[in-house]
Amino acid sequence: MSKLTLINACFGYGSKKVLHDIDLETAAGEFLGIIGPNGSGKTTLLKGMAGLINACMGFVGFDGLNIIKYGRENLAKKIAFVPQNPVLPDLFTAMEIVLMGRTPHLGLLRYEGEKDIGIALDAMEITQTAHLARRRVNELSGGERQRVIIARALAQEAQVLLLDEPTANLDINYQAETLNFLQGLCQDKSYTVVAALHDLNLASQYCDRLIMLKDGQVWKQGTPADVIKGESIRMVFGADVQVYQHPLNGLPTAVVTSRAKKSK
């Protein structure tokens, strides 16, 4: 099934509540985008879905079972979390980084065997990073590093990938490359991908469904056509925009309304 379910979920840090009354459900093969202004709780939601922070109220389940009951290692075999700009050791090779994804499958004091190396290599083939296997982290471009990190997540053999701003600090080519790849995982291999995205138009073009956050709760959710609307963006982001249908695919595209320039 590979389905995450949140019912009336609340997340926070210590006594500070960040998110409350979160209801959502993922589907296999779905690319789900999380959007919202800075500080709206996108990263917190991903961490809660990954079991990295516990819900202070409500239910967070994977295939119907509360994620707490899986235990950390077993949950890591099912759900992989890719943080934004993780710190990677510069002198490690790309292959060594990907092999870190096998950690949940290794027993105490056990080293990677042929099976683990084979799975890591398969993950690198899928992400088109196999040719980078011997390259050190400090020799990789931003786009290459991002694909290697995703390969590490695939090496966990998890079917749900949670990504925090996977296109952050990437130029437009690497942004498209990364999102095309993630979309392919959903469509071709039935992975479930949940990604926090900063760019509303990228979210609209690539995601099957969107969750829009505001003030610690779900403001709106649905297809990009349901969510990317001028009034919603003004109320949530405080930005004046015009929303048009993309001329090639009909998906909503938001354009900021600029002030008219005064003639000299």
Low-confidence stretches: none
Assign the CATH superfamily of the largest domain. P-loop containing nucleotide triphosphate hydrolases
Number of helices: 9
Strands of the widest sheet, in order across it, are 6-7-8-3-9-10
For this structure, the CATH topology of the largest domain is Rossmann fold
Largest sheet: 6 strands, mixed
Please state roughly what percent of the residues sit in beta strands, choosing from under 5%, 5-15%, 15-25%, 25-35%, 35-45% or over 45%.
25-35%
- What is the count of β-strands? 12
Output the structural class.
alpha/beta
Q: Averaging pLDDT over every residue, what do you get?
A: 91
CATH secondary-structure class of the largest domain? Alpha Beta
CATH architecture of the largest domain: 3-Layer(aba) Sandwich
Tell me the Rg in angstroms: 19 Å
How many individual domains? 2
Helix content: 25-40%
* Termini Cα gap: 63 Å
- H/E series, N to C? EEEHEEHEHHHEHEHEEHHEE
**Overall 3D shape:** globular
Give a brief rundown of this model:
The chain is built from 9 helices and 12 strands. It has helices spanning 42-50, 72-76, 94-99, 114-126, 142-155, 172-189, 200-206, 224-227, 230-237; strands at residues 4-13, 16-25, 31-35, 57-62, 65-66, 79-82, 160-164, 192-196, 209-214, 217-222, 241-245, 252-256. The longest helix has 18 residues, at 172-189.
